[in-house]
Amino acid sequence: xxxxxxxxxxxxxxxxxxxxxxxxxxxxxxxxxxxxxxxxxxxxxxxxxxxxxxxxxxxxxxxxxxxxxxxxxxxxxxxxxxxxxxxxxxxxxxxxxxxxxxxxxxxxxxxxxxxxxxxxxxxxxxxxxxxxxxxxxxxxxxxxxxxxxxxxxxxxxxxxxxxxxxxxxxxxxxxxxxxxxxxxxxxxxxxxxxxxxxxxxxxxxxxxxxxxxxxxxxxxxxxxxxxxxxxxxxxxxxxxxxxxxxxxxxxxxxxxxxxxxxxxxxxxxxxxxxxxxxxxxxxxxxxxxxxxxxxxxxxxxxxxxxxxxxxxxxxxxxxxxxxxxxxxxxxxxxxxxxxxxxxxxxxxxxxxxxxxxxxxxxxxxxxxxxxxxxxxxxxxxxxxxxxxxxxxxxxxxxxxxxxxxxxxxxxxxxxxxxxxxxxxxxxxxxxxxxxxxxxxxx
Length: 442
Ligand SMILES: [Zn+2]
Description:
Layout (H helix, E strand, L loop, with lengths): L1 H20 L6 H21 L6 E4 L17 H19 L8 H24 L6 H9 L8 H14 L6 H9 L9 H19 L7 E7 L6 E7 L2 E7 L7 H11 L3 H16 L6 E3 L3 H17 L4 H13 L7 H11 L5 H10 L5 H11 L4 H14 L4 H16 L7 H13 L4 H5 L1
Parallel strand pairs: 2-4
Antiparallel strand pairs: 1-5, 3-4
Helix pairs in contact: 2-3, 2-4, 3-4, 4-5, 6-13, 8-9, 9-11, 11-17, 11-18, 14-15, 15-16
The structure holds zinc ion.
Zinc ion binds next to helix 11.
């Protein structure tokens, strides 16, 4: 452990020495690009006045946000102004196509373009224009989720039926079985902290991070999400875990990796250190939620779980460390993870529910009933899912489709499970550069 931190500190020192020696100086085209990027940030902050969820994080110049309000009613003047601003930025960007001299510049150009297109869509949505589900995901997240029929989910239910203890109703047996793996409330903190420390230690072996990076965990209630990372800038995050519903043992590693290492916290930290601090690209000081950046963020965060624990390493750590810490029986860990592996096939069920509910094909009650039948959810969880869909709409595709896009990109470029070095290199590359879903999926 000691050796690793010495290596990391040495790498960081080398980095900071280089930075001082070759201070990055932007050229003329870059200055023009920076001005568009600054206006993009102001546009996002402006849109955020009409939807409190839109600006997920902001750590840019304070004066850009100083006079802004929140929860303003959206009217025709706001629509006219925001649409005109978005269109003029898109035009300015198109006129600057010669900016794309290097790979990083091409990525930046494409990123800003797609982010602005999402802003344009968001402004139209605020004005009451609702697109069909797949068109909405294409416009906001630069991707379309594949469709699956009921038979696809039914075959997983049949597989679960074969391995779950007992007989009869599969949903009931699944939920009864899973209740044996709930982390007792008084053990939550210990289990989470242990999972976070392990995910951090593994991540740091592969990705050097700024010395002062840190994050704190808070336990909250009455939210539509399970957990949330609030990035504060200066390499700090606050992670909130919602304790409304029982938290199963597998969530410890899922959340530690997804929200923390090497997920959201690491992603935001790397963007800040590589693009904001080193290059002065201010568009990364704002994180607009309903944009392609979210697919990259959620996709890398979900794939991050497999990054820190490839193959059998996770089950080993669960059995040896987390199960005993939570007072659970490690003897049942294998079956539990087999069940979870099958349940992964339900990942796309949430997309179907959202697609049909938002397109108006199913009522709220029909969607809840479908989630109970084809994703074997309890009524409570299905209701939580609906309230998430009502708040965040087609955002649901970012988790599963996002992960598949990131996974495919990494594996097709040689980052397979038996080439961990390449895998981490590609993963770090995605986290440190301006990526778009369409760009990765190519
Ligand atoms: Zn997330």
